[in-house]
Amino acid sequence: MKNVGKVDSAIRIVLGIVIIIIGIYFKSWWGAIGLIPLITGIVGWCPLYVPFKISTIKTRKGG
Q1: Nearest CA-CA partner of 58 in 19, 14, 2, 16
Q2: Which pTM was predicted?
Q3: Of 14, 33, 45, 46, which residue is 20 to 30 A from 5 by alpha carbon distance?
Q4: Can you give the residue ranges of every domain in the chain?
């Protein structure tokens, strides 16, 4: 079940790519950390949201 909304997903993808690029630029393995937001943004599911029952997906009301 997805728990990452469109805006959240876009931010994660951009942030992940930026972190990876910075890691490559500085020749640091820390750039690999960028894979986490990139993958969660692409997949649309964040395991850290599950225990806190968080979802950034907008739902329709009254419908």
Answers
A1: 2
A2: 0.88
A3: 33
A4: 6-43
